[in-house]
Amino acid sequence: MIVSGIMAQALTPTEDPAWLLRETGYELLRESTFETRFAISNGFLGVRGGLATHLGACRTILPRTYVAGLFDTPTPDSTVPELVPAADWLQVRILLPDGPMMRCPNRSSRALTLDMHRGILFTEARQSCNAPLDVYLRTLRLVSLDARAVGMQLIELQIENGVSDLTLEASFGPTDFELAPERAEPDLRAWRTWRSSRSLAIAAAASLHVDGVERAPTARGDLMWSWSWTASPGQVVSFQRIIAVTRHHSVDVHSGARARRELAAARALGWRGVIDRHEAAWAERWRSSDVQVEGDAAAQAALRYAIFHLNGAVNPADPQVSVAARALTGDDYRGHVFWDTEIFLLPFYTLTWPEAARTLLLYRYRTLDAARAKAAAMGWRGALYAWESADTGAEVTPAQTVGPDRKILDILCGSQEQHISADVAYAVWQYWQATSDEAFFCQAGAEIILETARFWASRAELEADGARHIRGVIGPDEYHESVDDNAYTNVMAQWNIERGLETASLLRERWPGIWNDLSERLGLDEVELKQWREAAETIAIGFDPETSLFEQFTGFSALEKIDLAAYAGRSVPMDVVLGRERTQRTQVIKQADVVALLALLPEIFPDAAGEKNFDYYEPRCGHGSSLSRALHGLAAARLGRPETALRYFRQAAAIDLADTHVAIGGGVHIAALGGVWLTAVFGFAGLSLRPDGLAFAPQLPEAWCKLEFRVHWQARQLRVTIDRTAQSLRVVLEKGSAMAIYIGEERYLAPAGEALALSLVHIRIQKIHGTPPFSPL
Amino acid sequence: MIVSGIMAQALTPTEDPAWLLRETGYELLRESTFETRFAISNGFLGVRGGLATHLGACRTILPRTYVAGLFDTPTPDSTVPELVPAADWLQVRILLPDGPMMRCPNRSSRALTLDMHRGILFTEARQSCNAPLDVYLRTLRLVSLDARAVGMQLIELQIENGVSDLTLEASFGPTDFELAPERAEPDLRAWRTWRSSRSLAIAAAASLHVDGVERAPTARGDLMWSWSWTASPGQVVSFQRIIAVTRHHSVDVHSGARARRELAAARALGWRGVIDRHEAAWAERWRSSDVQVEGDAAAQAALRYAIFHLNGAVNPADPQVSVAARALTGDDYRGHVFWDTEIFLLPFYTLTWPEAARTLLLYRYRTLDAARAKAAAMGWRGALYAWESADTGAEVTPAQTVGPDRKILDILCGSQEQHISADVAYAVWQYWQATSDEAFFCQAGAEIILETARFWASRAELEADGARHIRGVIGPDEYHESVDDNAYTNVMAQWNIERGLETASLLRERWPGIWNDLSERLGLDEVELKQWREAAETIAIGFDPETSLFEQFTGFSALEKIDLAAYAGRSVPMDVVLGRERTQRTQVIKQADVVALLALLPEIFPDAAGEKNFDYYEPRCGHGSSLSRALHGLAAARLGRPETALRYFRQAAAIDLADTHVAIGGGVHIAALGGVWLTAVFGFAGLSLRPDGLAFAPQLPEAWCKLEFRVHWQARQLRVTIDRTAQSLRVVLEKGSAMAIYIGEERYLAPAGEALALSLVHIRIQKIHGTPPFSPL
């Protein structure tokens, strides 16, 4: 029997399957995977793809809604804040006279459909186990990209067969163990965190229609509604719930007022209006950031999925928060922010959504004092950012963790993984180069660059050999701790100091007033700048001109070499196979380290040094981090090895999308998703920034006939199309004034509002050596 | 300030530190370890050693009280029942005007003391973080070994400094997600499971005294009490709560009545009376089962800890349940029962607590129909026990699990790990040999042995080579699946069929009426018995007379040999290091397999075959199971290698007691604890059963000056003392008539009520070869 309710259209996903991710069936052990994979987020609220209706007791799966920035420590003893989940606002029970309606093994159907175009998760189920009824259930959930406080749930229940008394009960899950209750009223509940003085309010409204006619609730409690009636064949039941969530950074008696206002605004739009505005916001995001690949449906799907999560991870209106290692999709890493944001995510935002990039960098500006305090506490000057950062910017890396063998391990990253400071500076500089956002640069960015440069100049100590050394650090390769002169760290430090000097010159020249104020406030004088210059010149970077190799750190080349091919069958990372102690004595690398340098600063690798370093380090890498493969892909593409790059691209995409593992229960690997986009745009299209425009060095793999995407550059918007079959590159400058486009070293002018079509046939793409992509303006 | 309240004596642990396990301080990551290690249990109720007072929000640690036999499936889709935790009945909050009193990092002290002699967990804390008060808090908790439905909690709060309004609130933790609430009254709550039709009731009473004067509760709810008063220095606050828990195997409206009766009985005794009876019951258990070691304090502590948990794991009054792989101390393995019970635990119960052994074997008798159904469903005759068994005896091994690499793995044990049937028969026979419990044998044991023998006779199929083969099984070494002719399985099968034939002869001879009834009921005739005889004679057991080696299974010796020494640094089991597929192609063994055979049936290893097999298989064993080391220790001691045995003994003891790992959060490894006792009594003392008495073959390690223990044998009780220094063995027959004691093959008579002292100096201890310890009566 096909019936059609008032919500029929809203409950129908986009037609084009290329925009959909779909999963049917139900498998308990994979459920946490699906909850992550089908998570939706708007950068303020994140909702995992848990089941839409309550199944009776089910202690394996906890539904999760995250509120960005709602941190608290889990116990009074802990110094490590964690993102506290909010009440589950999707809770619905369908009650029969004998108890809750239950899913039925083998007989109940279930489907999840993530509509990436519309930013909506749909579910569908037939539940007919213990029911005297046959019902067909469709649900929709969204967190609005238009009004980020707002979440909405629609449920349509079609009674296909049977007659029975029925109750639909909508309530909120418990949070009292996590949050202390403050207010409970029929339309509002408010909580505060136990220790961090944050508060949370949720206002909600719900209604139910049977065959288009609204029914009054039979029972009503605090954020609880229930409706009872006699169900009969052909009935269509339409349920809607709209919520508004607010977070406050103090225990605020008025917290409920704002949630109520947000709710009132959403209710004024009605559920159709909420959907319309949300979809319009998503359409705008897709217009700016979609990447299209022809010839490789899997790559297309991977890119869509990556871009969907990247757009959902950030809230450009909230500089209080940044993007966590698992975004707002899971418990792993407790909502903490790592270098992942600056190195793996910022390029996407900078080039497709500068407002979002700016907000993320303002989070680092807001936490600059905490970075200064960390450096000072460790005896250095300037700013050393927290390796793991939560709401205040204080270092919140746990001191210990439980290893895969359930042994307690000390975590040294919080004190030793210092490259984070250069990574933040790198993202600031890249944003500045790509946007020319003077207000940001003068008010925030320059200060970050100067303070991180100052940190490195004080950190690299002059020793008897006449060189400056950075001892006792951890590089990106975390298998090796307390190492000296990690190439990635030292080269990035050198680069950071150079950008500090460049920033100083630039400010002095173009904005002398700002320079005077800032240098006075920072106590930065000529003597110190001279010392920076000297530090940048004398810092040991471990490059051997004879072999063209960077040594990853002092003594690396003398370590035991392990043939990783012999461990191909392993099911766990190499440090677990060999044990932590032994791994430290080998050349096994956790993740791209010198290769990361090649991905970020290709210009510092002279001649064939890029190839040489890649060929040396790639076989030594165990890829024990989800960050590793994308950077290998990016570097390989840049080196003119698109098929190798494609292999890494697929492996990076598989982390969250392949079904062979269930490792993603703790949330999507947002950095790997950022890396998927990076490999496509910075790798295969070979994009790099120039002072007067953008350069491209296309290296499409065989399977990719065509690659098309949009980027922003200095208040312009370009559509870039690379056609492998036609051997052409086409740039349409859709917004903004004329700019330069480089293919290799050939310079072309892209005129405003017009298309620039270039043939790639006779152009020898020069591999990127010695060409600073970020040269001074 | 030292004050002394009415509970002072009760709250003071036993003086002798050899009876105490103590932990001070608080370390979040180790908390789950302590919760397991300090668990207490009486075989019906199990309570983990969670914190006694609520800390505010704390989402890492869930307190757990288990009720034996309270199984339910976690979701409607699941076919795997799990032990459902009951409400946390220890919940207490101490509320100050500003909120709950909280522990303070670095400033609050905390100590846990497990008094194994008294069967009580004590905690001690000074909490002075956010309080205007200095308080000293002592708590006691027990689950009564005298009345197993009863739990009791005492708290004494001494106000050392400060004046403040104070509230002590005692309540019950939520269970509503796990269990459906049925009744809630001030003194009683009742729940039912969502799907399995079990019910649970808890009745409780609580009271509070300030300076010895009882106060009426200021507020009262369902199983909730709170008292408010103004605390001032010198006050001693005494809180007591007694609970009574009942489980019903149906949804029973009267379930509360029994809980109320049990509670009333406990209240009539008063808290002192409850403690007295509980301690008397423990004293009786220790009198029967304590093992004393002189010269090795660590071994003494390990044995005490093992015996404490073994005595707490079983309820001789309840044949509805058996001992789970983690007893009642943790979530791992969901409360399921494995071969662990019969092979690792039963010897302890059989020899120190025959009533408990009998009950555990009656659980197998109760589930014999389910074992018959499993065999029939797979196309065989007789009884094939469930590899994992819960309340009904149906096979409940999960079909899949998530591996250490978070890959979903198929679990084949539920269909292939069939040796369980022979293991059950082994335990029945051992019990029968040790107790001569005719009633049990005739009414239950014989039928188990006959039906399992019948299974093997139908399972081992005659093939063209004239031998019977058992194909497609998993032995104890679970790294190798779908193997043919696993030596452990086939030899145990052969032994089981032989015991079946022996049982048939015995019944026919001694209890012809019973034989007639039983053989008729089972349809067991001469033709079938002849077929059994032929099956036992022709079954392939893989023994090569040339090398004296059993081949673990057909083709094992041709597999790749791995040098395990090269993987000494590994932090995870070998199947994780090599990957599951590769491990299957190597000789790496998960756990004692042929060595298990050597431990269980030493008499089938002719001449030096024991040594040869041990020396061949030991270096191939990765010890990927907690069961492995104890059996290696037992076998090594029997082979006259006490120092090797001691190494394994210590490693087995370290599983739950060493602090290097935190692997025990999921519960104590009760089989390894059983193995610790086994290694001492069956290994170092060399105990074995003879038709007319007990044999000993002492092999004490250097460090053990003296070993003393008690055992039951056929309605007698013996105290056995082995003195290494004096080279003597002393047996005191404390109860029962004269019996034989063997040293090697020398036979002595232990007279009733007297001591038999034997010198070991001139007795050559014959290693146990070819001497059936279980010869026919």
Automatic annotation (TrEMBL), chains A, B:
<keyword id="KW-0808">Transferase</keyword>
<dbReference type="GO" id="GO:0004553">
    <property type="term" value="F:hydrolase activity, hydrolyzing O-glycosyl compounds"/>
</dbReference>
<feature type="domain" description="Glycoside hydrolase family 65 central catalytic">
    <location>
        <begin position="304"/>
        <end position="677"/>
    </location>
</feature>
<keyword id="KW-0328">Glycosyltransferase</keyword>
<dbReference type="InterPro" id="IPR011013">
    <property type="entry name" value="Gal_mutarotase_sf_dom"/>
</dbReference>
<dbReference type="Pfam" id="PF03632">
    <property type="entry name" value="Glyco_hydro_65m"/>
</dbReference>
<feature type="binding site">
    <location>
        <begin position="590"/>
        <end position="591"/>
    </location>
    <ligand>
        <name>substrate</name>
    </ligand>
</feature>
<dbReference type="InterPro" id="IPR017045">
    <property type="entry name" value="Malt_Pase/Glycosyl_Hdrlase"/>
</dbReference>
<dbReference type="GO" id="GO:0030246">
    <property type="term" value="F:carbohydrate binding"/>
</dbReference>
<dbReference type="InterPro" id="IPR005195">
    <property type="entry name" value="Glyco_hydro_65_M"/>
</dbReference>
<dbReference type="InterPro" id="IPR008928">
    <property type="entry name" value="6-hairpin_glycosidase_sf"/>
</dbReference>
<comment type="similarity">
    <text>Belongs to the glycosyl hydrolase 65 family.</text>
</comment>
<dbReference type="InterPro" id="IPR005196">
    <property type="entry name" value="Glyco_hydro_65_N"/>
</dbReference>
<dbReference type="Pfam" id="PF03636">
    <property type="entry name" value="Glyco_hydro_65N"/>
</dbReference>
<dbReference type="GO" id="GO:0033831">
    <property type="term" value="F:kojibiose phosphorylase activity"/>
</dbReference>
<protein>
    <submittedName>
        <fullName>Glycoside hydrolase family 65 central catalytic</fullName>
        <ecNumber>2.4.1.230</ecNumber>
    </submittedName>
</protein>
<feature type="domain" description="Glycoside hydrolase family 65 C-terminal">
    <location>
        <begin position="689"/>
        <end position="748"/>
    </location>
</feature>
<dbReference type="GO" id="GO:0005975">
    <property type="term" value="P:carbohydrate metabolic process"/>
</dbReference>
<feature type="active site" description="Proton donor">
    <location>
        <position position="478"/>
    </location>
</feature>
<dbReference type="InterPro" id="IPR005194">
    <property type="entry name" value="Glyco_hydro_65_C"/>
</dbReference>
<keyword id="KW-0378">Hydrolase</keyword>
<feature type="domain" description="Glycoside hydrolase family 65 N-terminal">
    <location>
        <begin position="23"/>
        <end position="246"/>
    </location>
</feature>
<dbReference type="InterPro" id="IPR012341">
    <property type="entry name" value="6hp_glycosidase-like_sf"/>
</dbReference>
<dbReference type="InterPro" id="IPR037018">
    <property type="entry name" value="GH65_N"/>
</dbReference>
<feature type="binding site">
    <location>
        <begin position="339"/>
        <end position="340"/>
    </location>
    <ligand>
        <name>substrate</name>
    </ligand>
</feature>
<dbReference type="Pfam" id="PF03633">
    <property type="entry name" value="Glyco_hydro_65C"/>
</dbReference>
